[in-house]
Amino acid sequence: MELTIVHADIVTLSVDAIVNAANAALREGGGVCGAIFAAAGRAELQAACNVLGGCATGEAVVTPGFRLPARYIIHTVGPVWCGGNNGEEALLRSCYRCSLARAQALELSSVAFPLISAGIYGYPWEAAQRVASTEIKAYPAWREGAQVTLALYP
């Protein structure tokens, strides 16, 4: 599996799936989540998320990509940073593992992640990038030539 780090708007990437830094209710939010809802089509994406009924922190669920270049959106709920002594790192690691497992189950060849929890959830940027990179690199490649992109907003 190959990891590439780019400075790009995740909603513009032509990959099989993009990962949404979602909230537990799977409602449109701000930041990356808001941009994904806007680009995918707010009404369609919200209707698909409503059917799922939510997502626990550290877990991941999947919807169609609707109007995005990506066929799927993998929604994962990152932890809110509370100082680092409340299991935040384990939950953040789980976000990446669960999202990659969803991509593997769908037999996808490419997936793009934002930096989960590093925005409004307050996870320190450098620590979040370190967790993302180590979890992506540690995940067993599900397909030869699988591509994972970490998209850092420019």
Explain the overall architecture.
With 154 residues, this protein is α/β, with parallel strands linked by helices. 34% of the residues lie in helices and 21% in strands. It is built from 4 helices and 6 strands, in the order ββααββαβαβ. The protein has helices at residues 31-40, 42-52, 88-105, 125-138, and strands at residues 2-7, 17-22, 60-64, 72-77, 110-113, 147-152. It has a 6-stranded mixed beta sheet, with helices on both faces. α4 links the parallel β5 and β6. The model has no long low-confidence stretch (mean pLDDT 96).
List keywords for this structure.
154 residues, alpha/beta, Leucine Aminopeptidase, subunit E, domain 1, 21% strand
User: SSE order, as H and E?
Assistant: EEHHEEHEHE
Radius of gyration based on Cα positions: 14 Å
Decide which structural class fits the backbone. alpha/beta
Which architecture would the CATH scheme give at its second level? 3-Layer(aba) Sandwich
